[in-house]
Specification:
heterodimer; A: alpha/beta; 25% strand; B: 335 residues
Chain lengths: 497, 335
């Protein structure tokens, strides 16, 4: 068993009223590749800030290489061989590769002078250690993100390095860059350098991590080798729920019909489309590219209006010839990835909740009435049980779960009757996917009628009560998901191709 | 080699200057004479010295300082009065002017650092305070007689020659002061960690802080240095004109900033070179001198400067835009 490099015991840390870390224990061995995972707000950022000396814990004990450390200031941690590469990489885009790598080493030497030959040799030496080859004179801002990351790693190697913390290193990397990053990480390990990954994109990290520590709501839930974890187990450990595998069920067949579509047609796009959507129901719309599913959604939202047919919202017929018509009728359309990105982190809960409905909060002279705005915020905070001391605090101070409730409240307050989601989970990782699914279900549970457009049959099967399969502009199949097998639905989608 | 040269803004400036010189010389051969060149080098040395300061601020902040002309104006007036009253020599005068400039520059630095206000806003304010106070205190009175040391300093010539009409001409000391300023500035920017910190903060201030750069000290240095150069520029100007008109230097600030931007300094911060800055100043000086030699109205100079600024700034912005597009955006998670 290799020796321990770092030991944290019973670390507590709180910010204005929020307990970010509640007695976390954490250990890291020398030369170990360790992965730290958790949802937003689980405390992983706080933990690495404590390890890197940016923050001081309120209580608890830190031991580095067997020595008890009372205070880990930024400079002191660097001296102990601990360095962090933040997600933004902290590079200087206007300076060359050589200078970016060597500048902090030059500073450390303390003469106050810069010798350019020395700058180049420091940079060259760092690159040689991990066998990367970069143009020393290239401007860093001109490099692709994967190479920039290599520059950041080389920079950390110019000092005596024992632990490298990588904050979300793979978040914005293309596949082949992830592979070369992981190769470098293995190389670092071979040099006896420990690497702590902070990530929620997990598949790649599983490939190299020796142990994985999971945080949830400021507590360490588990530390396990990757062999004992799979996606399902990880998700349940991170969220404390197993929501992902539970199917959405909708049994209220008597709920009011919010959307009725009859014989809707648009030349060369879709033909004679009819379906209903009830309050609180999630209906999936799927089909291959070119089947007309996206065109149908765009027609319902008035972007490319239908030519024939009828649409009723809440029983009364509406004519949708433009986006304004659709919005007035209570239909909202949300393209890829936009669903949960709806918060302005630095603004207050009140501001965020009211942003989309300001025109309904007008008072005298048509100006927004602050009292009504406040009242509306308080109402939603109570309705959704959002844990916040004061509606005037910035959203970023809330925990992840409460932030999500603010988004839900914002959508509910804006009050569309029908929500059309186009590929809400395209390109997101398994964790974020689960969060989006639970979010959509939560909206439905509160009475929203949701039309979910998706390419992924498993997503449709587990999150919708019915699936409409489109092919060549027509709805060819309508399946109730209760009891349906993913494989069977998949076959139906493809059989029609 | 050629491709390397073509990547540099300076190459284009040199080509432009050469073309301009050739064109003017063809129209009026008097342009390319020692007398004329020495003359316009002298007349642009004040702008040249100020431009070095403006470069430091643009690199650091990506937002220009506009108060340096007001500082120079106040210093010029104060030094003219003080030397008349107490005498002294040119070295003492330069030292006093520089010190006074440093103090006034530091005020900018302290406000900008403490309140994180954009440089241009703060310096518009201090510009008005300094310039306004000057008028309040002096009632805008001209000073027609200054201490003879300025005349001596301003008229001293290297390589003196006698012109056809009997006057003497030669290389003034003023461009040499400018040259000395450029050399010192080059050493600071290129060879000291302080200078690299200016670039680092201009490129990514958060990263600079994480690296342990003292941003307060760097900022104070830059604004103090700008003040110092304003003081030196004031003495240079006083030595050339040997009188004080209290609104003669103010108004030059935009021309100075334009020359720096033309020289390749980015209006987004973090980028700029001394070579480019010197070339930018020279280009404007040649343009001015050429238009005069070719009997154009001096208003054409304003038009020409305006056109050049527009082209330079839009080009700088366009390059930035192109780079941003090429770069993959990193989504930063909140908290």
């Amino acid at each position: 068993m290799t020796e321990e490099f770092l030991r944290l015991e019973r670390i507590h840390k709180s910010f204005v009223g929020v307990q970010a870390l509640k007695g976390v224990d954490f250990t890291l061995r020398q030369g170990e590749i360790h992965c730290l995972v958790g949802e937003n707000g689980s405390g992983k950022s706080t933990l690495i800030k404590i390890i890197s000396g940016v923050l001081q814990p309120d209580s608890g004990q830190i031991t580095v290489e067997g020595q008890r450390v009372d205070r880990l200031g930024s400079a002191a941690t660097t001296a102990r061989g601990i360095q962090v590469i933040y997600q933004d990489l902290s590079l200087f885009p206007n300076l060359t590769v050589a200078e970016n790598i060597a500048l902090s080493a030059v500073k450390e030497r303390g003469s106050g002078m810069v010798n350019w030959r020395e700058v180049r040799s420091i940079a060259r030496a760092a690159m040689d250690r991990i066998q990367v080859d970069l143009d020393l004179d290239a401007e860093v801002g001109e490099l692709p993100i994967g190479r920039q990351q290599m520059v950041a790693i080389c920079r950390s190697l110019t000092r005596d390095l024992k632990l490298l913390i990588l904050d979300e290193p793979t978040a914005s990397l293309p596949r082949h860059d992830i592979d070369s990053l992981l190769a470098v990480v293995r190389d670092l390990k071979a040099h006896g350098i420990a690497v702590l990954f902070v990530s929620h994109k997990l598949n790649e990290v599983f490939a190299v991590a020796e142990r994985i520590t999971i945080l949830r709501d400021g507590e360490r839930v588990a530390t396990l080798p990757p062999g004992e974890l799979d996606d399902d187990k990880l998700v349940s450990l991170m969220t404390g729920r197993t929501l992902n595998r539970q199917r959405f069920s909708f049994s209220d067949a008597g709920a009011r019909k919010v959307l009725e579509v009859r014989g809707l047609s648009r030349r060369n796009s879709f033909e004679d489309v009819s379906f209903d959507l009830r309050a609180g129901e999630i209906v999936a719309l799927t089909g291959l590219i070119g089947s007309g599913r996206t065109e149908l959604a765009l027609a319902l939202f008035g972007i490319s209006p239908a030519e024939r047919g009828e649409v009723r919202v809440d029983g009364s017929p509406v004519r949708i010839a433009s986006v304004q018509d659709a919005v007035a009728a209570g239909i909202a359309y949300v393209p890829e990835n936009r669903l949960v990105q709806g918060l302005v982190m630095k603004l207050s809960v009140t501001e965020n909740l009211s942003a989309a409905v300001l025109d309904r909060l007008r008072g005298r002279f048509g100006l927004v009435d602050p009292a009504r705005k406040e009242a509306m915020a308080v109402e939603w905070i109570q309705a959704l049980d959002i844990k916040v001391s004061d509606p005037a605090v910035a959203v970023q101070t809330l925990s992840g779960g409460n932030q999500q409730r603010v988004v839900i409240a914002k959508w509910l307050a804006a009050g569309p009757k029908v929500l059309i989601l186009d590929g809400p989970t395209v390109g997101v990782d398994v964790m974020a996917k689960g969060a989006i699914h639970s979010f959509v279900r939560d909206l439905a549970l509160r009475g929203m009628a949701v039309l979910l457009i998706t390419d992924e049959v498993p997503e449709a099967v587990s999150n919708a009560s019915r699936i409409l399969i489109m092919h060549a502009g027509r709805i060819r199949e309508e399946i109730a998901t209760a009891g349906a097998q993913v494989e069977q639905v998949q076959r139906l989608v493809e059989a029609r191709a | 080699m050629l491709r390397g040269l073509l990547r540099h803004n300076e190459t284009y400036l040199v080509l432009l200057i050469l073309a301009l010189c050739a064109g003017i010389t063809l129209a009026n051969p008097a342009f390319l004479t020692f007398e004329n060149v020495a003359g316009f080098l002298k007349s642009c040395s004040m702008v040249g010295i100020m431009a070095v300061g403006a470069l430091f601020v643009l690199v650091l902040a990506g937002s220009p300082d506009v108060s340096f002309t007001a500082i120079a104006q106040v210093v010029e007036y104060a030094i003219a009065i003080a030397t008349l009253r107490w005498g002294g020599n040119i070295y003492v005068a330069i030292l006093a002017a520089a010190s006074m400039g440093v103090l006034m520059g530091l005020v900018n630095g302290v406000i900008i650092h403490s309140f994180r206000v954009p440089t241009i806003i703060v310096t518009i304010a201090t510009f008005n305070i300094y310039f306004g106070m000057l008028y309040v205190i002096t009632a805008g009175k001209l000073i027609n007689v200054v201490h003879p040391m300025f005349r001596e300093f301003g008229h001293a010539l290297l390589f003196p020659q006698t012109s056809k009409i009997g006057g003497t001409y030669g290389l003034s000391l003023m461009p040499l002061v400018w040259l000395a300023v450029v050399v010192v500035a080059w050493f600071i920017l290129r060879r000291t960690f302080l200078g690299r910190s200016v670039f680092a903060i201009g490129g990514n201030e958060i990263a600079a802080e994480r690296m342990g750069v003292n941003t307060l000290r760097t900022r104070l240095f830059v604004f103090g240095f700008v003040g110092l150069l304003s003081g030196v520029a004031a003495v240079v100007h006083l030595s050339i004109v040997q009188s004080v008109v209290p609104n003669i230097i103010v108004g030059k600030e935009l021309e100075v900033i334009a020359a720096v931007v033309l020289g390749g300094a980015s209006v987004f911060g973090g980028k700029g070179t001394l070579t480019g800055t010197v070339l930018g100043v020279l280009l404007f000086a040649i343009l001015n001198n050429g238009l005069t030699l070719l009997d154009f109205s001096s208003y054409w100079y304003n038009v020409a400067i305006g056109v050049v600024i527009t082209v330079a700034i839009t080009n700088s912005a366009y390059q930035q835009l192109r780079r941003e597009k090429a770069r993959v955006h990193v989504k930063v998670e909140a908290r």
